[in-house]
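Can anyone check this?
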Amino acid sequence: MRDKGKKLAVLVLSAMCAMTQALPACASEGTKEAGRMTAGLHKTGILASQEAGEQVKAARAAARVFSGQESGVSGNGKERSGDTPDDPGNASDGPGDISDKPQSLDDREDTQDDPGNPDDLGNPDNPGNPDDPGNSDDPGNPEGPGNPDDPGNPDDPENPNDPQIPAPEKPEGLRTTCQSDTKVLLEWEESDNAASYEVYRKKSGGSYKMLDTVQKTRCADKHIVYGNSYRYRIVPLNAEGVSGAAAEIAFSHRQVVNVTKQKYTYRTMKSDMEKLAKAYSGYCELTSIGTSVEGRAIYDFAIGNPDAKKSLLVVSTLHAREYVCSAMLMQQIEYYLRNYNKKIGGTKPAELLKNMQIHYIVMANPDGVTISQTTYPRWKSNSRGVDLNRNFPAKKFHVGGKKGAEGYSGKKALSEPESRAVASYTKNLKSNQGLVGVVNYHAMGQIIYEDCSSAKLKSKTQKMYQIARKLTGYKSAGSSTGKGKSIGGQYREYVMYMLGLPSITLEVGATWAPCAFREYQSVFRKNKFVVLKIAEAL
């Protein structure tokens, strides 16, 4: 390359000398520059390849510029208007237009033989020779060694980048069912990616200790003690033993319903229901069936198999001041749940309630109860002054009474949200769960309403009455139909004559409602087995 550079410099010098004679004014600077380049080449002899390349490139460009001026063509490719020797040419023309002219043979030879200009970064659009297998830096070559973007073969069992089994999800739906005084069953929904579960328990004030490791989504703790409180933790594990987020639940193995004073409030009842539903989740369910005038939920508390083909309904406290019935039924519900797997009164609830579910509307008039317990003890109606037990449909519904504490039928049947909720739920059970009868609780008098004018219903109604009378000692109330025109519609008559179902009404307590607190335990004892035995008989 150095010899070629010398030859080229000599050629350039000769051309520049000729142009200098024709264009002395214009070419003087170019001649001086070329002279300096040539002198430098001769003086140094051999230059480094980088310096030679730069010198030759500059000399070549100068030669082409001056060659274009001598031939009468401007740098932009247009013919010049004159050949004035003193015209320096278009100053705006520059080496950028050189690419428009074909390369000379020498130029082509230089390109072919030149191993590369060290300052030339190459054509960025040129991906290189695809046939060159030795280009290990080519990221497009999948065979190339050390490609950092190659994730490897995901099917290779020895590949450290293989995806791990995901950690299991947190168990959902953790619940407890107290099965006896010494045993509680824990159940939960299956967790994604879980192969097993570690179950831990701690007593109140203690620390967690492992109870068991199970593959199923249930675990029984058979060593609980009545009166204690516990907390359980379920830790899911995947097949590799990696744990996921744990689920926890508290379990209080104590009596829930504690009637320690006369006023068993709506708030207390709701709290007790929620606690029972949590402690005995496998045996019962709590559902809101509507709301009162003031927005309080009206609850159905059901025990037994929700898929059973038969059901029995118990309705209590349509009359506000008769809330002793609510307290008694809550005690009854807990008694049945706590002894679910035992025989009580000759009957084992677990066996009976495989085929029947018992539904309790424990407090049908929560607004009225609140009024009776806070401002007006003898209040019987709902918060709009309508007597709910006069607000049900009847074959002949007669509007009567005055709005207030008791006796007013309302403008029409089911004008009140409480009576609508009870009537609607009664019909729903008849249609969807084979409702076999209805037991109503009121206070006071220690009597039972059992009269029935329907031959079709008389047998079952009498059966219900005889069971209740034997257990409680209450006497028959005789006919509930007085002389003269009946006001509104009573719930029992609605059930029997509008829905065609057997029904009785028990009036508890010997004192005027609200009943004296001293009667509460006596009321519970007398009625403890009534509902269970009627359910068994029907």
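Reply from J.R.: I decoded it. The two ends are 117 Å apart (CA to CA).
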